[in-house]
Write a structure and sequence with these properties.
The chain is globular. The protein is about 35% helix and about 20% strand. The chain is of the alpha+beta class. The strands form two sheets. Strands 3-2-1-4-5 form a five-stranded antiparallel beta sheet. A three-stranded antiparallel beta sheet has the order 7-6-8.
């Protein structure tokens, strides 16, 4: 079946000398993997002059593709940039954030099906990142919000309780195995209240890194097969 859809690049793995296997989160069909022959050529007649730069992490694309939906690699027919980034390519902090988020989404999105609301959220927030200067808390807010779409956002109905049980995803009045201590829980609560446009000085560097570790560990508890992103160390370095 031939389709036209928006797509967000999650990864591009080199295959043999000149080809790529590109994994995308598509608006129409959720996760899809594509085989791109001769991706390193300057131009590709079939892809309307697509360049290797089109397959950088979290690039927003508009594609025409053939989806056979048989569990095999699909094929692009045409590709173009849906929304060109203006600041991200030359901003080491923003590009590091995208590298981290792409890797995290690869291991987090496990249902190969359409999720239009999730796609719209990712697209909107990427454009926000590109058009705003103060982004120190962006990845933290993104992770909390993404947990809503993945089905394990914390139950905040009893947020006034002093401890957070990471296994149950809810607040508790008892400190036990699997719960954050009071200091960690307080930090976690502050994270839940963050917005994309929150004051960038809401957290000290050490607090931001501690909160990031807590969230990543929380993801690992709720997603089978979750892998800690290798780019996490890069992200820590740019915010240190």
């Amino acid at each position: 079946m031939q389709i036209k859809t928006k797509a967000i690049v999650l990864s591009a793995i080199k295959y043999q000398e000149s080809s790529l296997i590109v994994k995308c989160f598509t608006q129409s069909d959720g996760l899809k993997s594509y085989f791109v022959r001769a991706a390193f050529a300057t131009k590709s007649a079939k892809l309307g002059g697509a360049k290797i730069a089109y397959f950088q992490p979290m690039t927003l694309l508009e594609i025409e593709a053939v989806h056979k939906n048989k569990g095999t690699l699909e094929h692009f027919k045409e590709i173009k940039i849906a929304t060109p980034y203006q600041t991200i390519p030359t901003d080491v902090v923003k590009s590091s954030i995208l590298l981290f988020l792409a890797e995290l989404l690869q291991t987090s999105i496990q249902e190969e099906e359409k999720n239009a609301a999730f796609f719209a959220f990712i697209e909107t927030t990427l454009i926000w990142l590109d058009t705003h200067a103060h982004t120190a808390n962006f990845h933290l807010v993104f992770l909390f919000e993404t947990a809503k779409y993945l089905g394990f956002y914390p139950d905040v109905s009893e947020i006034d309780l002093p401890y957070f049980n990471t296994q149950e995803g809810q607040f508790s009045d008892t400190l036990a195995i699997g719960t954050l201590n009071e200091q960690e829980t307080s930090l976690f609560k502050r994270g839940l209240n963050l917005q994309f446009d929150s004051d960038q000085k809401s957290f000290h560097v050490s607090e931001r890194q501690q909160l990031l570790k807590i969230i990543i560990d929380y993801y690992a508890q709720h997603l089978s097969g979750f892998k800690h992103p290798k780019s996490l160390e890069v992200l820590k370095a740019v915010f240190s």
